[in-house]
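The material for today's practical consists of a large collection of protein records. An example says more than a description, so a record of this kind follows:
***
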Amino acid sequence: MLKKLFSILALSVALSACGTGTTSESGAQNATDSTDNSTKDTTETMTSTTDKYVEIKTSEGDITVCLYGDTPRHQANFLKLVNEGFYNGTLFHRVINEFMIQAGDPDSKTAKPGQQLGAGDLGYTLEAEIVYPKHFHKRGALAAARQGDQVNPERRSSGSQFYIVTGRKITAPEMQQIEARFADSEKEAEFTRLVQQNMSQIRAMQANGDQQGLYSLQSRLIQEVEAKFADKPKLTLSEDVKAAYKSVGGTPHLDNQYTVFGEVVKGMDVVEKIEKAQTDGSDRPVNDIKVLSMKVVDKP
């Protein structure tokens, strides 16, 4: 089972690395993808542990978010963009009911009606700050979009694109299925990282039609993954996290994969209104929903 899974993944990685990857709204990794370049961010490392608050004025109403102090790089970057007025005039360019609302694409400021968005970036990415299970994808969570593991095994975040989780309430049987997938998802991520490290060798084998070499390499990488996880305890959801997903809702399949760096503390009704907007085939609202302005505010 694992060999079949990794074989498919290896092919996906190779294709993505050659520039033929696609975005899928149903895939856990691609569901909130931006197409940010892999350029590293130059933001100085921050050590503040103080939460900050930002008011987001939109064409549908106001939303106030808390930016966690224990994700300092994401907090500092978001505050920098807010203070520069970067987000003013950007759109909520991707909206999926019972999933999330996404914004922060710089190209959306001048987008024409029907133009597909989501590929805009600022030329840098942020180091992941995944503080899990403390911060998880509950309803109202604020998180950073990113490219999928196939081309971004370090899970670095977009420099500007973010999403607010809406999701839905999760049943007990669904929670059991999600927990069962956790172990495999971590193995997949490690396998992807190893494939990236060996990509030059993989491409050379592909160019030479060396199928036996590819199979041998795949077997060795699988063995390395299995050995690494042999003595590791399986990831499980805490009872508090399970209770939140059952009572409030969210998108647990994204946990431990994307950086959650804040949450909505006021204006969730506005988020819900945006969530219900009519969208086109690219999940862009038919009628533009704009970020009018953002500003740093005191704790509500």
Observations:
- The longest strand covers residues 52-58.
- The chain has a mean pLDDT of 84.
- Strands lie at 52-58, 61-67, 92-96, 100-103, 125-126, 141-144, 157-158, 162-165, 260-266, 291-297.
- DSSP finds seven helices and ten strands in the chain.
